[in-house]
UniProtKB/TrEMBL annotation, chain C:
It comes from Nocardioides turkmenicus. It is a multi-pass membrane protein. Belongs to the binding-protein-dependent transport system permease family. LivHM subfamily. This is Branched-chain amino acid ABC transporter permease. PANTHER family: AMINO ACID ABC TRANSPORTER PERMEASE PROTEIN, BRANCHED-CHAIN AMINO ACID TRANSPORT SYSTEM PERMEASE PROTEIN LIVH. The lineage of its organism: Bacteria, Bacillati, Actinomycetota, Actinomycetes, Propionibacteriales.
């Protein structure tokens, strides 16, 4: 696979500067935030970013859309909380151990749901969230039932709330960066090539000798691991776990919307999506707070993206912009179906 | 399959977009906040987050009406410390995650002078945590479950007569004082998995088990349960002498209807919350005779504060206030008493800690009678027991406040 | 556990299974005609229940009469939804994108209901809601019996429609082999639209049946979609008889398990069965060759 920089018109140095400036802006956010409330919104958005990037390991690389990633983040949160309260493990160790356990649990789940194509995968992803919600609500002795669990603070009481927000903001940004680097590495590896082959045409990929099942399983487990890490970190920050919120299909659907909006095929797409959606949610709440209209808005937005911009809003916007750019390169990433459609359109135009 | 590259130009514009988005985020969110700075010298702003939508919206709206009536009443009578009271309300959609963000926002962005609590234990705990972290006094109208008082909050006060476990205290005493031959032998319990609802049912269960009443069914169901037929089947099959429901509203109604469908006839049926609601009788087909419920509030109580409250509320809404409205009003009264006593209502920690200290030491006269608290914030009074008699809900216990005779055994429904 | 409790639970399970069967039949119909996993099916179910509730509240008439409005309305809505929205999706990504699109529709319905009627739980007040018949010591609630009867009649009607009419033949041909059906001169696009309408009509009937004896609230549909999806996978995706059989078996199993395990744990039977099916027999237990590829 060719690397992007060797073909681009922009020198690598400028892109590096752009990346550094962007990162600098993100890191300066706690200092720029005018009050702790905005800082806490920043933490929520950063956690969304981490979750969306984690989701994109499966969604972006294989094209399998999971609506049930809340299952892994919830398990990460509950695992972290239980390891701290029941086993007395250090909070940060708990978070990592819980994520590893969730990764291990994702193996059989992946085997059950990835053997068959799309439809069953989606059904299992939803079923998993629902089953975990039932278990979390019923198994009161361990999970605290519908009351959920309280998670002890990882920092001492001398660390004031605004400072906690700041630390967790950096932690979420760090987690997101680690996940992004890994995604980038996979994307450029043999594994990534195989996965994208699956995304475009699974039957052909299989015929070409790509070990499709094993490849899918690997990224599925990686995705579950990072999702659980983000879930555990959220639990440490927020301090309490409510099963209805932890195991919610809605949370999972936010991740899908973020990734789709930003573009599942690109590295930073989910992050951009998380910022837009996270901000939109807060904005909407500010404007129309007292109603259920936010669900309607979420639904309409999702439907619009699916119907008209299935590759993401940002890729769609940039492709629109590129049209007006003189000498803009015409090469873009397309799948077989798109090519077929384009060809058809061309033929029809010729007639 | 093709391996192609995304033009870098679009990559750069994507980065720019992201950066712009991040900046826009910080500035616009700040802008919405800056528009409404907290109270100046002429008003006291009280921040509240309430479940106006979602699972708890029904009681949430009751609490809202109570708070609004209280603020109007105070303003009509010269305000607090000569300043007008303004309520700043947010909707938390019954979500624990939202409620914490709401108080975070009220305290930091709106810079409210005081905060008071939301509805339901599940929302009170995260909210109290935020208030405590910023040093605010936190008086709450609905968070009666034992867990609330075990979290070690130093700023929390529950503005109602008794915590959940003690709601049925008078009923338990009454049952156990019956002569051996009449006293029920077996009991069935079905409770929502909610700290408050379960607290009431299990408070009674513990007391009755100690007194020798055998538990034959003990079912707990999650808040979103809608099908009660199997729970009812178990209760009916056990033929328990009494049935106790730790319910909110709709689940209590559903359970009663399901029990009726199975033609189960207990000698005593006690349900928390549901029977005290106005729509209850119609919802179960008017077969209410003998159903029991605890209550922390009655419009008929003869405290002067209460008479004034009922009069004011009826004039405004054309109907009598319920328990939720009364609890909110009580909360307002408690906060106002502290504010008047220490003569301050500011966000700064010193004022807030003075308010907290004052409430620890003193008793406040409210619509539910005089209230005082232990060091964990538990109120120290008792709940009354009501029973449906001839199509009306009436106080039957304690004896000195009773409006009707206690009916036992309950007639068939 | 006494024998009478066992009998009681068995009856409750059968009554519930009937409703599951009707709803799962609708869900599997969509999958058959379009390979679409219709997440919004249960949202439409709740929408129909709300319409029945609202109808009764406004007119004071029996909720069953609302069927005369909701069934044609939902049939039309299904047809329009298939023709105007789902057929626009690219075939290559249809399965995934249709999930998202129907999920979005479910959100819009849930949010709209919450906006119009608030999140408060609702229940139709019926004079006969507490009435019951006795059968060998067990009790059968009249409302549950009506709901079951409604489901059974609709399922029978659906079955006859598919087996005995020309439209049914065309629909089955479309399900089995779309291209071949096209060659035979069947307008498969129209037929697929009608198939979708039929599926949604089952949700209208199911919703009314549900409203007779249950509390409804906007987010209740999540409670239903899980079991229904499990049923259609276990029954074999695309197989209507498979879905009906799986629904009855699972409904009864759930009711019986409630005795020792309690309501919540018993519900996990759907998911345990789902995982077991995917592990050991991914094509489902009653399904045809369709299921293997999806």
């Amino acid at each position: 696979m060719l690397s992007a920089s060797s073909h681009g018109r922009t020198p690598a140095a400028i892109r590096l500067v752009a990346a550094v400036v962007l990162l600098g802006l993100v890191l300066a956010f706690p200092a720029l935030a005018p009050d702790p409330f905005i800082l806490s919104v920043g933490v929520v958005i950063a956690s969304y970013a981490a979750l969306a990037v984690a989701w994109n390991f499966v969604g972006g690389l294989t094209g399998y859309i999971s609506l049930g990633h809340a299952a892994y983040s919830g398990l990460g949160g509950y695992g972290t909380a239980l390891l701290i309260t029941e086993a007395g493990v250090n909070p940060w160790v708990s978070m990592v151990v819980a994520a590893l356990l969730v990764g291990a649990a994702a193996v059989p789940i992946g085997i059950a749901s990835l053997r068959v194509r799309g439809a069953s995968f989606v059904i299992v992803s939803i079923a998993l969230v629902l089953i975990l919600l039932l278990v979390a609500q019923s198994w009161a002795g361990v999970t605290g039932g519908s009351n959920g669990l309280r998670v002890p603070r990882p920092f001492g009481t001398d660390v004031l709330r605004p400072e906690q927000h700041e630390r967790f903001f950096y932690l979420f940004v760090a987690l997101t960066l680690v996940a992004l680097v890994l995604w980038w590495l996979i994307d450029r590896s043999r594994l990534g090539t195989g996965l994208k082959a699956i995304r475009e045409d699974e039957d052909k990929a299989q015929a070409l000798g790509v070990p499709t099942f094993a490849y899918k399983l690997v990224v599925f487990v990686v995705s579950a691991f990072f999702t659980a890490m983000a879930g555990g970190m959220y639990a440490l920050w927020f301090g309490s776990l409510d099963p209805i919120f932890q195991f919610s299909i809605l949370t999972g659907s936010y991740l899908v919307l973020m990734s789709l909006l930003g573009g599942v095929r690109s590295l930073l797409g989910p992050v951009v999506g998380a910022v837009i959606v996270g901000y939109a949610v807060e904005f909407f709440k500010n404007q129309y707070g007292d109603t259920q209209l936010h669900l309607v808005a979420l639904g309409l937005l999702l439907a619009l993206v699916v119907l008209f911009m299935p590759d993401g809003v940002i890729p769609w916007l940039t492709s629109q912009l590129d049209r007006f750019r003189p000498g803009g390169t015409s090469i873009r990433e397309v799948d077989a179906a798109q090519l077929a459609e384009e060809r058809k359109a061309l033929e029809e135009a010729k007639r | 399959m093709r391996f192609t590259t995304i033009p870098t130009a679009s990559k750069r514009s994507r980065a720019t977009l992201a950066a712009t988005a991040a900046l826009a985020l910080a500035s616009t969110l700040a802008a919405c906040g800056a528009a409404e700075e907290g109270g100046g010298d002429d008003e006291i702003v009280i921040g509240i987050s309430l479940p106006l939508t979602g699972d708890f919206s029904e009681p949430g709206k009751g609490i809202q009406r109570g708070y609004e009536a209280w603020a109007e009443y105070v303003n009509a009578n010269g305000g607090l410390l000569g300043r007008d009271v303004r309520l700043e309300m947010l909707d938390d959609q019954s979500s624990a995650e939202r409620v914490a963000a709401d108080y975070e926002k009220l305290i930091n962005q709106e810079q409210v002078d005081l905060v008071v609590g939301p509805f339901s234990t599940r929302l009170v705990i995260p909210a109290a945590q935020v208030a405590q972290d910023y040093g605010y006094l936190f008086v709450e109208p609905a968070g009666a479950a034992p867990e609330v008082f075990e979290e070690g909050f130093e700023n929390l006060f529950y503005a109602a007569p008794a915590v959940a476990d003690d709601h049925y205290k008078l009923l338990a005493e009454h049952i156990l004082s019956m002569p051996e031959s009449e006293r029920p032998k077996t009991a069935a319990y079905a409770s929502m998995d909610d700290p408050f609802a379960q607290g009431t049912a299990y408070g009674l269960k513990d007391a009755l088990e100690e007194g020798g009443v055998k538990t034959v069914v003990d079912e707990v169901y999650p808040p979103n349960t809608t099908d009660f037929s199997s729970i009812a089947a178990k209760v009916a099959d056990s033929k328990a002498d009494i049935v106790v429901g730790g319910s909110q509203y709709q689940d209590g109604v559903n359970l009663i209807v399901a029990l009726q469908q199975l033609n189960y006839q207990p000698k005593l049926a006690a349900f928390s919350t549901a029977p005290t609601e106005t729509e209850f009788a119609e919802a179960i087909g008017d077969k209410t005779q003998g159903i029991i419920a605890p209550t922390g509030y009655t419009t008929k109580a003869d405290y002067p504060e209460n008479q004034e409250f009922v009069k004011f509320y009826e004039e405004k809404h054309g109907e009598a206030p319920g328990e939720d409205e009364a609890n909110a009003w009580t909360t307002g009264q408690v906060v106002a008493a502290a504010v008047e006593a220490v003569e301050c209502a500011e966000p700064d920690p010193e004022c807030q800690s003075q308010l907290i200290d004052w409430l620890r030491e003193n008793e406040v006269d409210t619509v539910v009678g005089p209230l005082s608290w232990d060091d964990k914030g538990r109120p120290q009074s008792a709940h009354m027991i009501q029973q449906w008699v001839d199509g009306e809900i009436k106080i039957v216990l304690p004896k000195d406040q009773a409006e009707a005779e206690f009916i036992f055994p309950k007639p068939a429904w | 556990m006494s024998l009478s409790l066992l009998l009681q639970s068995l009856i409750l399970g059968l009554l519930l299974g009937g409703l599951y069967a009707l709803l799962a039949a609708g869900l599997t119909l969509y999958f058959g005609v379009m390979r679409v996993v219709m997440i919004a099916h249960s949202a439409f179910l709740i929408l129909a229940a709300y319409l029945a509730w609202f109808f009764t509240k406004q007119t004071g008439l029996d909720p069953l009469l609302s069927l005369f409005i909701t069934v044609p309305l939902f049939f039309a809505a299904g047809y329009v939804m298939q023709r105007a929205l789902l057929s626009r999706l690219r075939p290559a990504t249809l399965t995934m994108m249709s999930v998202l699109l129907t999920f979005a529709i479910a959100l819009v319905i849930e949010g709209g209901l919450g906006y119009l009627f608030s999140g408060t739980q609702r229940r139709i007040q019926l004079g006969y809601s507490g009435a019951s018949l006795e059968l060998w010591g067990a009790r059968i609630a009249v409302v549950k019996l009506i709901a079951f009867g409604l489901a059974a009649i609709s399922l029978l009607a659906l079955f006859l429609l598919l087996k005995k009419t020309r439209f049914g033949q065309a629909l089955r041909a479309t399900i089995q082999h779309r291209e071949a059906a096209q060659l035979l001169g069947i307008d498969t696009d129209r037929i697929a639209g009608f198939g979708f309408g039929l599926g949604l009509a089952t949700a209208a009937v199911g919703g009314t049946a549900l409203a007779l004896d249950a509390t409804i609230y906007p987010s209740l549909h999540w409670h239903w979609i899980g079991p229904l999806m499990a049923i259609i996978v276990i029954g074999g995706l695309g197989s209507i008889p498979g879905a009906a059989i799986a629904a009855m078996i699972l409904g009864v199993t759930q009711a019986l398990l409630q005795i020792p395990m309690g309501t919540t744990w018993a519900q996990t039977v759907f998911y345990v069965a789902l995982f077991a099916t995917l592990m050991f027999r991914p094509q489902g237990f009653f399904g045809g060759r369709l299921a293997q590829r999806f």
